[in-house]
Amino acid sequence: MAKAPRQSLRPLRGLTRGAGLAAALLVATPLAALGQTTITSARFDAPTTRYAHGVLGDDVEYGALILRTTEADGQHNSVTLRLPQSRVFEDLAPRLIDLDGDNRPEVVVVEADSQLGARLSVYGPQGLIAATPHIGQRNRWLAPIGAADFDGDGHIEIGYIDRPHLAKTLRLWRFQSGTLTEIASQTGLTNHKIGWDFIAGGVKHCDGTSEMITASADWSRVMATQFDGERLTSREIGPYQSPQSLTDALSCP
């Protein structure tokens, strides 16, 4: 029997919802007082049904992002970042990734606008750092693959599948100088089916090479995609039989 994908976090939400609402009422450290702050953990809070898309299996999304931080003097704090009523975090869990190489992670999330659909956003303790454009239509979503310095130029790139159920397009964005810039795209790839409470695949790191593992658009093949600094190149690495096929493909030989 295939193992359950490791990314499956959605079923835990009902168990933690009450605690999350209580935590949202805590007084956060004033943002203006933050200095050299390191994010040590992040989680979504303020569950809401104000954006009834349900792409991840239910109608519950989140209106707040809670960051646990440590200051240079060792003091621990909590920062709560709240979205306006027109937006939600339409995601499974925040991702802590050091995007700028300063040994302090940023937070990468998917957020959705009630009229403009999803975008990929990068947050820090003081709020939004950078974001991709919204897809442009409500109930249109994107599924992150992961991040790495795919071309070895010293800058981190973030890959996601734009509309994994419709456009099935891999888009690669470089984070540099506090901004996100799209540098490549390729159609014919996907990593999510409507209703899944997980995102399949991810980034494979083997022998100094990073590849994005997804499925082909028709869910028949497992695909590995590299970026050489100019273009994306995909190759078939085996048949797709279940989400476990993509999980298995993340392992090095």
Molecular structure report:
This protein is mostly beta strands. Helix content is 7%, strand content 46%. The strands form four sheets. Strands 4, 5, 6, 7 and 8 form a five-stranded antiparallel sheet that branches. Strands 13, 14, 15, 16 and 17 form a five-stranded antiparallel sheet that branches. The model is unreliable at 1-34 (pLDDT under 50).
What features would you highlight for this structure?
17 strands, disordered N terminus, 253 residues, mainly beta, single chain, 2 helices
Please specify the SSE layout and strand pairing.
Blueprint: H1 13-24, E1 38-48, E2 61-70, E3 76-82, E4 87-89, E5 95-97, E6 106-113, E7 117-124, E8 127-131, E9 142-148, E10 156-162, E11 169-176, E12 179-187, E13 189-190, E14 202-206, E15 209-216, E16 221-227, E17 232-239, H2 243-248
Antiparallel strand pairs: 1-2, 2-3, 4-6, 5-6, 6-7, 7-8, 9-10, 10-11, 11-12, 13-15, 14-15, 15-16, 16-17
Strand-pairing-aware structural class: mainly beta
Mean pLDDT: 89
Gyration radius, to the nearest Å?
Answer: 18 Å
Query: What is the end-to-end distance?
Result: 22 Å
The main pleated sheet reads as: 5 strands, antiparallel
Which residues form runs of ≥5 with pLDDT under 50?
1-34
Number of helices: 2
The fraction of residues in strands falls at over 45%
The multimeric state of the shown protein is single chain
Shape by Cα distribution:
globular
Helix content: under 10%
Please tally the β strands and state the result.
17
SSE ordering: HEEEEEEEEEEEEEEEEEH
